[in-house]
Amino acid sequence: xxxxxxxxxxxxxxxxxxxxxxxxxxxxxxxxxxxxxxxxxxxxxxxxxxxxxxxxxxxxxxxxxxxxxxxxxxxxxxxxxxxxxxxxxxxxxxxxxxxxxxxxxxxxxxxxxxxxxxxxxxxxxxxxxxxxxxxxxxxxxxxxxxxxxxxxxxxxxxxxxxxxxxxxxxxxxxxxxxxxxxxxxxxxxxxxxxxxxxxxxxxxxxxxxxxxxxxxxxxxxxxxxxxxxxxxxxxxxxxxxxxxxxxxxxxxxxxxxxx
Length: 259
Hints:
- The structure is a single chain.
- This protein is mainly beta.
- A hairpin with a 2-residue loop joins β7 and β8 (about 105-110).
- The protein is about 5% helix and about 50% strand.
- A four-stranded antiparallel sheet has the order 3-4-5-6, with no helix packed on it. The chain has a four-stranded antiparallel sheet with strand order 7-8-9-10, with no helix packed on it.
- The protein has helices spanning about 5-10, 255-259, and strands spanning about 15-20, 25, 55-60, 65-70, 75-80, 85-90, 95-100, 105-110, 120-125, 130-135, 140-145, 150-155, 160-165, 170-175, 180-185, 190-195, 205-210, 215-225, 225-235, 235-240, 250-255.
- The chain has two helices and 21 strands.
- The longest helix has 5 residues, at about 5-10.
């Protein structure tokens, strides 16, 4: 036996003996030893796509599009393919900004064709290599978003909608003195934010949902609290809401259960 203090607790007992009352005695332990599984820690790796001034990225599948300065020129739309790790520049004029991508189609704003008349909205098909101007009106059109064949953008206090196959265009709303906030599109819906300070402060804010197929608008929330941003994906709308812009919480609205 080993009876030296708590040595059996500190140092362990030889094979065939167990620790009892701080002594190693004959016996077999009933303790079941379980293997320790060491899970490797994977460290994420960032990849630098460009070394020139770039911004406004949008991603869909393996494609990332953004506006970047090429050499010493003006910003142009560039595309990075994650699968092939190749960077290409859209065959379009300079002064191209704010791209968005969905299903191999890219939309962006451009001010090079008619700079005195503001920016215009263009689209480009990666699969067909075809480019076109969506709207030739003489006014500023900016911040386009696309999902599948549907395109939306801001234009002179309006939020506009365009359907690529039929070239149908219509208004989603007119700001009419309200504060135009963020907006997003997914599937057959457009979610957008409007603020109203016409009666003074605090302003009223609302998140609204536009149904493209029925041309109807539903109110998601209308409140005197602060609403910061809105996003939509599948059947979910997310928005930032709180009593104050610096203390917002994120809320989720389920289209299937609410409408």
